[in-house]
Amino acid sequence: MRILFLGDIVGRTGRDAVIAALPGLRRDLRLDLVVVNGENASHGFGLSLSIAQDLFAAGTDVITLGNHAWDRKDLVGQIGTEPRIIRPANYPPGTPGQGSVVVGLVDGRKALVVNVMGRQFMDALDDPFRAVTDILGRHRLGVTVHAVVVDIHAEASSEKWAMGHVLDGRASLVVGTHTHTPTADHRILPGGTAYQTDAGMCGDYDSVIGMGKDAAIARFLRRMPGERLQPAEGEASLAGMMVETDDATGLARRMAPLRMGGHLAPTMPDF
Ligand SMILES: [Fe+2]
Ligand SMILES: [Fe+2]
């Protein structure tokens, strides 16, 4: 299975770039599954259902979220109507929506996508390791699902590395999100799981993690609440990675970063 994962989409410039590029990427890279993190798609804070629908129409299969999941309050009441939008699985029981979804591809193959959130330097949620292990316990990679993608939305690199190792051999891809900065450590772990500490963001990198520089810098310089943060609006870079898996095992065969447009040096998968 050929899988594309794109990191946090930030604001209009990020989502416009994703929507413009996805149909061509799906065709040229012969993608079977596209997963994007949408927690900042709505003006930097949260996700609206109409933006989600635009992302699905452009070729997204599943949208994951994170600590900004509920910034758009309307999504709280709507997430239950759209199983392809998932929020971190380790929110407390009773939280609207689901933390995982099994999607069927047009050719009948199935993929499980899971979203969990880390706890280091973040809100105190339930144990993400236990949450993901419980979900994976209900599926068998290579038997009941052909691929498993886990988005670990977390601040700490250490927590993401640990998640990669815990799931090595049980997931096709474990990828971090939330820091909005792509890491250069993409690799296939010894057990066959593709791993990258952070996918980076789809947004304007001439910014402070996607938000306008002046207001963001002023907060650091003055340590006072200032003007509201607004997404930067320059040309966005797409950032993420592509993985090709073996359907018989669900494990990764090849992995390569994808970055295009905007301020980042471009790189495209060559397989
Ligand atoms: Fe984010
Ligand atoms: Fe986040």
Automatic annotation (TrEMBL):
Gene3D superfamilies: 3.60.21.10. Fe cation 1 binds at residues 8, 39-40, 180. Fe cation 2 binds at residues 39, 67, 153, 178. The active site is at residue 68. This is YmdB family metallophosphoesterase. Keywords: Metal-binding. Transmembrane segments: none annotated. It comes from Gluconacetobacter diazotrophicus. SUPFAM superfamilies: Metallo-dependent phosphatases (SSF56300). It holds the Pfam family YmdB. The keyword Iron does not apply. InterPro entries: Metallo-depent_PP-like, YmdB-like.
